[in-house]
Amino acid sequence: MRTVWIASLVVAFTACKKEREPPSSASLLAPASGSPPAAAAPPPVSSTTPPALLPMGVTWEDPPGWERVGKSNPMRKATYRIPRAAGDGEDAELAVFYFGPGQGGSIEANVDRWVKQFSDVPDGGVRRADRSAHGLRQHTVEIDKGTFSSGMPGGPTRPKPGFALLGGIVEAPTGVYFFKMTGPSATVKAARPAFYQLLDSVKPS
Predict the structure, then answer these.
(1) Under DSSP, is residue 108 helix (H, G, I), strand (E, B) or coil?
(2) What are the CA-CA distances from residue 185 to residues 36, 120, 166 (Å)?
């Protein structure tokens, strides 16, 4: 009887000292009752992400009177129609491009390509400048008047005499953003103050 009594004490003592098992990984991940599930992490941004799915790393303010229109291709993040000035035969257009981190080519290569889309530009007719806004470096290029070769790169072009260019290239932590306005000379000239106001408003999002 003494042996049985001692054995019972040992069993009872062991049961009291046994630690509680940790919760399962499923219970650790499950939200509390009534709580919303945790939001899914955003997909990583890389040079292989399609341009249409890339997030915008900057924001800006739309100038009054400029109309946002549908994107004509996935590489455009925005397209604006700028109403024509009196005497001009068509509206101007501002296209905003973003190709992703490390994509889109160098500043010089893009400026050179934009300038080469114009002919009949007088000597000294291309103006360039560097500026900054909200801590972001910007590079601008202007052509007051020339013949613009309109069309998609690598496709057929249509010469448009009396056209002008306002271009801005913004360096941001998420990549380079390209703002390119082309249109009849008087319309682009009239839109110049609003174009620079837009560039002044560009800031990291």
Answers:
(1) helix
(2) 55, 14, 10
Could you read off the pLDDT of 47-89 as tens digits, one per residue?
Answer: 455 545 555 689 999 999 999 998 667 778 999 999 999 999 9
| pTM assigned to the model | 0.72
Helices (H), 18-83: 25-29
The CA-to-CA distance between both ends of the chain, in Å, stands at 80
CA distance 205 to 202: 9
Evaluate whether the domain defined by 51-204 bears CATH number 3.40.1000.10. Answer: yes
> Cα 155 vs. chain centroid, distance in angstroms?
26
Q: What is the rounded CA–CA span in Å between residue 30 and residue 35?
A: 10
Domain ranges of the chain: 51-204
